[in-house]
Design goal:
The chain contains eleven helices and ten strands. The chain is of the alpha+beta class. The strands form three sheets. Strands 1-4-5-8 form a four-stranded mixed β-sheet, with helices on one face. Helix 4 packs parallel to helix 7. 48% of the residues are buried. The chain binds flavin-adenine dinucleotide. Flavin-adenine dinucleotide (FAD) binds next to strand 1, strand 3 and helix 11.
Length: 382
């Protein structure tokens, strides 16, 4: 179905980012999958070419255009090329971490951090999840107790995307451990701070080129100047930023499903069984038709959500709807596409196999499907 949200400028940007992916990511993708991480030079290369921080004002080193459609294009092209795992660090940096800096930094913090974030010299991460808590964020145990001009941080985080590469980690902490939501604050922990250690780069089912790590904090003295936003308002800040994070994941899910369907259509037209292309069996046609229909419907909803986000109108509930439905769709589609590939669908040399492994996490991270339904259900007064 023809999409109506893009202008010519967006299409030019898409072409340019597609060339960047072809040149800077695709040729190295399998090496990075083996390494378990992308090189930091990927971030600086993206920064140099204008693919980081498109919405930060030019005075601080960004592209100066507040328009999530550019972020959307980056995410879509990464999925189209089958390099979503390697690109996840870029989309996390742009779509998920950056809004905390642009919406919460003081002018002094902006000057200190934004130029490096825009150039890719400062890689970002956001650390909420702990070994003992994920969905139930308000039960977090990492503490930050004020001592003069610093907060003394103790605790640990896990499953942190960009965890090894990150220089600036937006860290959710309890500045008042006696409280739940009201005791939470956000601090920026920086590479090299005494007592801030990285743990393992975790061995995952998929997304192999993405560094997902444990972080440990032992009496880390974080200057009060690194408080992001207001002390005690950490939960409110998170809630404010989560709709964009969830829309980013939803949009990537639809783009991943579209890519999977494309690879599968090529395959089922070529491969024959019982003297005919496997795509021409009625069952194959029906499955292809179902996927085509569901992806088109999802795309319309995602595009509408992007317009709402740009207009400052996307609600937490709408973002939750997009997140759970589009990622569950992604999971169903890649599973069906593996089935249509037969045994070859289980071989990593076929992009659908990697897409299958990469897809499994998307209904979990950024808030699980169950938590999304809780958010929507609560808003219905149920
Ligand atoms: C590859 C990867 C990257 C990640 N990146 C980051 C990151 O960058 N930063 C970060 O902070 N975190 C990150 N995470 C963590 C991710 O967001 C959490 O794993 C997720 O929020 C779920 O938390 P959990 O794993 O503790 O599961 P749990 O909260 O223990 O949930 C386990 C199960 O219980 C269900 N459940 C929990 N509460 C309820 C409820 N009230 N009602 C119904 N069911 C419920 C869940 O839906 C789930 O099915 C990442 C995880 C992975 C695997």
């Amino acid at each position: 179905m023809r999409r109506t949200i893009f202008t010519e400028d967006h299409e030019l940007f898409r072409e340019s980012f597609r060339s960047f992916v072809d040149k800077e990511i695709t040729p190295h993708h399998l090496d990075w999958e083996r390494d378990g991480i992308v090189p930091r030079s990927l971030f600086t290369a993206a920064g140099r070419s204008g693919f980081l921080a498109m919405d930060v004002d030019e005075a601080h080193g960004g592209g100066g255009v507040e328009d999530f459609r550019y972020n959307l294009i980056v995410g879509e092209e990464l999925q189209r090329s089958g390099t979503g795992g390697a690109g996840l660090g870029l989309t996390l940096h742009n779509d998920i971490c950056l809004p905390y800096f642009t919406s919460l930094c003081t002018e002094e913090q902006k000057q200190r951090w934004l130029p490096g974030i825009c150039s890719g010299e400062l890689v970002t991460a956001v650390a909420m999840t702990e070994p003992g808590i994920g969905s139930d964020l308000a039960s977090m145990a990492t503490t930050a107790i004020r001592d003069g001009d610093a907060y003394i941080v103790n605790g640990s985080k896990t499953f942190i995307t960009n965890g090894i590469n990150a220089d600036l980690v937006i860290t959710a902490v309890k500045t008042d451990p006696s409280q739940r939501h009201k005791g939470m604050s956000l601090l920026v922990l920086e590479r090299g701070m005494d007592g801030f250690e990285r743990g393992r780069n975790l061995d995952k089912v998929g997304l192999h080129s993405q560094d997902t790590a444990e972080l440990f904090f032992t009496d880390v003295a974080v200057p009060v100047a690194n408080l992001l936003g207001t002390q005690g308002q950490g939960f409110v800040h998170l809630v404010h930023n989560l709709p964009q994070e969830r829309l980013s994941i939803a949009a990537a899910g639809v783009a991943a499903a579209e890519a999977a369907l494309g690879w599968t259509l090529d395959y089922v037209k070529e491969r024959t069984a019982f003297g005919q292309p496997i795509g021409s069996f009625q069952n194959s046609r029906f499955r292809l038709a179902e996927m085509r229909t569901e992806i088109d419907i999802a795309q319309v909803f995602v595009d509408r959500c992007v317009e709402a986000l740009n207009a400052g109108e996307l609600t937490a509930e709408e973002a939750a709807e997009a997140k759970w439905w589009c990622t569950e769709l992604q999971k169903r589609v890649v599973d069906t596409c593996v089935q249509l590939h037969g045994g070859y669908g289980y071989m990593l040399e076929y992009p659908i196999a990697r897409a299958y492994a990469d897809a499994r996490i998307t209904t979990i991270y950024g808030g699980t499907t169950e938590i999304m339904k809780e958010i929507i259900g609560r808003s219905l007064g149920a």
